[in-house]
């Protein structure tokens, strides 16, 4: 049988609460019983003093024997003991029982108290017992005793001496009955009320906690079907709240990743379709004779360029796939920065001369060494220089700047030109993003170069930024650890 998290959580919480209240109730009952026993003992001690006083007034010691001299006082003492639910035992100085308030199988007139009891009374002038014994009443739970003194009359001799002992015996049923029912009722009602309120609060709390987890489960099932639109309200800053916030962040990341995936498919379809259409059209034109033989070389050159672009696209996609999957390993070596830049510039020599672009600042990189993956950083520099060459106008300028500060290498490439609008700047490093929406000026771009640049820089533990002024210049700058 499947038990929901809410029921499981509620059952555990209620179980803990009930166990806690049972333990608390047990301690309270023990405490109340101990308190009540102490109270009864103290009351019995106080009443014992009163009975000792009444005994000295009601009895006399005549020729070594106890006799009642004031029957009214003696009866009053007996009545008081009955009203207090006490059983009295009066013995003479030798410990022989003289009077008892009621008959019992354990105690009778003429019974001899144990020696250690009378000896304790002589020594300490007091005796108490909190356990059942065979020399008190059979139902006695608590007994206190004290000697009483009388005027001794024996012939012509007189004096004050211990004439006997009086025992106040408290029956067990009296102590139990005297424990007020109200105390037990209050405890029971308090426990029941506390358990009820605690269970309600535990139920509300359990429902709230399990509700959020249930919502996560439902949203996760929707995620599995490709629906990333749902979010869960964050309530509180506890662990569940943090989990909810992390879940929503994950949903945002998945939604963005799904959007990127859709854009990726759309863009890659476009990037593949355009050159393939061009290639197919020109090849068909040559084969069916539509394109004259004199122009075939020209169109075959275009086909070759489109094939090269497709090859570059595939190479870039493979590089990104390796980096995104985490399978790319960085092999760091030390190499010359200026040599790398110069070699890249040589590949764009014809375009630089054709557009009469001025190169400035190469001397800042002279003598600087870079510590990183040479192949990957070559790709970074190549893409940035290619980008600058592409967008620098006729007679423009490309400026390089490099410097080493502490354990970091800083590099920037700046080119004059149209610049990038503020609306485009936040997305400039996104995959397949192009600032030229019409695809006219940059129709050969795949929108992967700058994304690849940022990915490689981040892979080295660095950062890259871009700044631009419209109709003036654009500057890409990055730093990487150089140790």
From TrEMBL:
Catalytic activity, EC: 2.7.13.3
Catalytic activity: ATP + protein L-histidine = ADP + protein N-phospho-L-histidine
Location (main, coarse): membrane
Keywords assigned: ATP-binding, Cell membrane, Kinase, Membrane, Nucleotide-binding, Phosphoprotein, Transferase, Transmembrane, Transmembrane helix, Two-component regulatory system
Boundaries of every HAMP domain copy: 207-259
Keyword Kinase: yes
Histidine kinase domain boundaries: 267-483
Localization per Swiss-Prot or TrEMBL: Cell membrane
Single GO MF annotation: phosphorelay sensor kinase activity
Spans traversing the lipid bilayer: 12-36, 186-207
Protein name, entry field: histidine kinase
Organism expressing this protein natively: Ruminococcus bovis
Lineage: Bacteria, Bacillati, Bacillota, Clostridia, Eubacteriales
Topological relation to the membrane, as annotated: Multi-pass membrane protein
A single cellular component GO annotation: plasma membrane
Keyword Magnesium tagged: no
PANTHER family per the UniProt record, alphabetical: SENSOR HISTIDINE KINASE CPXA
InterPro entries: HAMP_dom, HATPase_C_sf, HATPase_dom, His_kinase_dom, HisK_dim/P_dom, HisK_dim/P_sf, HssS/ArlS-like, Sig_transdc_His_kin-like_C
PROSITE patterns, sorted: HAMP, HIS_KIN
Domain of life: Bacteria
């Amino acid at each position: 049988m499947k038990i929901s998290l809410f029921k499981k959580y509620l059952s555990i919480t209620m179980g803990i609460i009930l166990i806690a209240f049972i333990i608390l109730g047990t301690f309270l009952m023990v405490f109340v019983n101990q308190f009540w026993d102490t109270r009864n003992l103290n009351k019995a001690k106080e009443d014992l003093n009163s009975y000792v006083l009444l005994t000295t007034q009601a009895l006399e010691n005549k020729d070594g024997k106890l006799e009642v001299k004031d029957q009214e006082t003696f009866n009053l003492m007996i009545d008081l003991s009955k009203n207090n639910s006490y059983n009295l035992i009066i013995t003479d100085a030798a410990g022989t029982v003289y009077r008892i308030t009621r008959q019992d199988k354990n105690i009778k007139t003429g019974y001899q108290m144990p020696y250690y009891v009378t000896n304790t009374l002589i020594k300490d002038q007091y005796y108490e017992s909190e356990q059942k014994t065979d020399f008190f009443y059979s139902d006695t739970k608590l007994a206190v005793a004290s000697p009483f003194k009388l005027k001794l009359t024996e012939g012509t001799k007189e004096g004050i001496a211990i004439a006997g002992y009086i025992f106040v015996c408290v029956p067990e049923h009296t102590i139990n009955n005297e424990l007020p029912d109200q105390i037990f009722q209050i405890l029971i009602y308090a426990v029941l009320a506390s358990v009820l309120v605690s269970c309600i609060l535990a139920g509300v709390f359990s429902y709230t906690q399990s509700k959020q987890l249930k919502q996560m489960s439902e949203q996760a099932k929707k995620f599995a079907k490709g629906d990333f639109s749902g979010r869960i309200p964050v309530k509180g800053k506890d662990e569940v709240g943090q989990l909810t916030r992390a879940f929503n962040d994950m949903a945002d990341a998945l939604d963005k990743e799904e959007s990127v995936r859709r854009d990726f498919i759309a863009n890659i379809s476009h990037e593949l379709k355009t050159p393939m259409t061009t290639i197919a059209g020109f090849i068909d034109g040559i084969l069916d004779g539509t394109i004259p033989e004199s122009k075939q070389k020209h169109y075959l050159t275009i086909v070759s360029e489109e094939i090269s672009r497709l090859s570059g696209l595939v190479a870039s996609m493979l590089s990104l796939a390796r980096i995104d999957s985490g399978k790319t390993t960085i092999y760091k070596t030390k190499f010359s920065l200026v040599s790398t830049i110069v070699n890249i510039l040589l590949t764009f020599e014809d375009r630089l001369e054709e557009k009469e672009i001025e190169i400035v600042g190469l001397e800042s990189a002279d003598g600087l060494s870079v510590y990183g993956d040479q192949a990957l950083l070559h790709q970074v520099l190549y893409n940035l220089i290619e980008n600058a060459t592409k967008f620098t106008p006729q007679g423009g300028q490309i400026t390089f700047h490099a410097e080493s500060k502490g354990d970091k290498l800083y590099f920037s490439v700046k080119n004059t030109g149209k610049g990038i609008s503020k609306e485009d700047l936040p997305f400039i490093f996104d995959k397949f993003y192009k600032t030229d929406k019409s695809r006219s000026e940059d129709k050969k771009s795949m929108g992967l170069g700058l994304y690849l640049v940022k990915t490689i820089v981040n892979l080295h533990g660095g950062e890259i930024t871009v700044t631009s002024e419209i109709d003036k210049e654009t500057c890409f700058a990055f730093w990487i650890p150089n140790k």
